[in-house]
Specification:
The chain has 11 helices and 10 strands. It has about 280 residues and is an alpha/beta fold. Strands 6-7-8-3-9-10 form a 6-stranded mixed β-sheet, with helices on both faces. A 4-stranded antiparallel β-sheet has the order 2-1-4-5, with helices on one face. α3 packs across α4, α4 packs across α5 and α5 (about 145-160) runs parallel beside α6 (about 175-195).
Length: about 280
């Protein structure tokens, strides 16, 4: 088991008049190699949760285990943890700081104590893996487009060779084509490298076509946790907490209500197309 979250609570400004619970009795098991969508509206606790997974925040109570070790044990090596559980921030500007992209991606593996040859090789491989063109390697990351900045930020984490990659709202601010490109990149990395991916988003549309499992956060608690089709069955409850199922779900529900014999559990456009064609054939 890669990550276990055991009865975790987190209270901001604890023991003050401003105390605010952000996580309430959260329990999760995240196995190796799973592709997870972590969904929730603003203030639901999802960003607080992911900062616990690589030790940036410490729970007010409860435990977090990575590969059966308590990451908040005083003797635990947090530096090693952050190499193995990589976090890509929502805004790449919060992560990028070097004068050119190649130096930026070198920073993480360099601080692992690798030789210059090894950390530069890692940086080169990571930048190629995320599809950044060679002509941008030695440009300032702040001169790049939003999508290119995100590729560099992902490469910086990828160069650490993590077992788990957490991406906080990686499509925020991108146009539809940019969103699709980044999501396809993340999906390809999961397929090729077999790492655990935790994709944080407020949009069901962003995750429906990609993830194996969806965890829905609401007011600091885990509201739903299951395969996409299981979670989307609760589309009315999702609406009540400020979220929405993908348009495919609503389309299939309407077709079913009109008397068409379709499977309302389908989650992707391709599955919906096949269901509609079968239903039309039966008609």
């Amino acid at each position: 088991m890669s990550i276990i979250v055991n009865h975790v609570n987190h209270i901001y400004d604890e023991d003050t008049a401003m105390a605010s619970p952000a996580l309430i009795d959260v329990n999760l098991k995240i196995p190796d190699g799973q592709f997870i969508g972590l969904i929730g509206h603003t203030g639901s606790g999802k960003s607080t949760l992911i900062q616990h997974l690589n030790g940036l925040l410490k729970p007010s109570s409860g435990e977090i285990f990575f590969n059966n070790e308590d990451i908040n044990d005083p003797s635990y090596n947090k530096k090693n943890l952050r190499a193995r559980v990589g976090l890509v921030f929502q805004y790449p500007e919060h992560q990028l700081f070097e004068t050119d992209c190649f130096k930026d991606v070198c920073f993480g593996p360099k601080n692992l104590g690798l030789t210059q040859r090894d950390y530069e090789l890692r940086a080169y491989e990571a930048l190629k893996e995320v599809g950044l063109e060679d002509e941008y390697f030695y440009q300032s990351p702040f001169d790049l487009s939003g999508g290119q900045k995100r590729r560099v930020a992902i490469a910086g984490v990828l160069a650490m060779k993590p077992e788990v990659m957490i991406l906080d709202e990686p499509t925020a601010g991108l146009d539809p084509k940019g969103r699709e490109d980044i999501l396809n990149l993340i999906s390809d990395l999961h397929s090729k490298l077999g790492m655990t991916i935790i994709l944080v988003s407020h949009s069901m549309e962003d995750v429906a076509d990609y993830v194996d499992r969806i965890i829905v956060m609401n007011k600091g608690r885990v509201e739903f946790d299951g395969e996409p089709k299981e979670v989307f069955r609760h589309y009315k409850e999702l609406e009540e907490i400020g979220l929405a199922a993908p348009q495919v779900t609503y389309c299939m529900q309407e077709l079913k209500a009109e008397g068409f014999d379709v499977d309302t559990d389908v989650t992707t456009l391709q599955e919906a197309k096949q269901e509609i064609l079968k239903a039309l054939g039966r008609c």
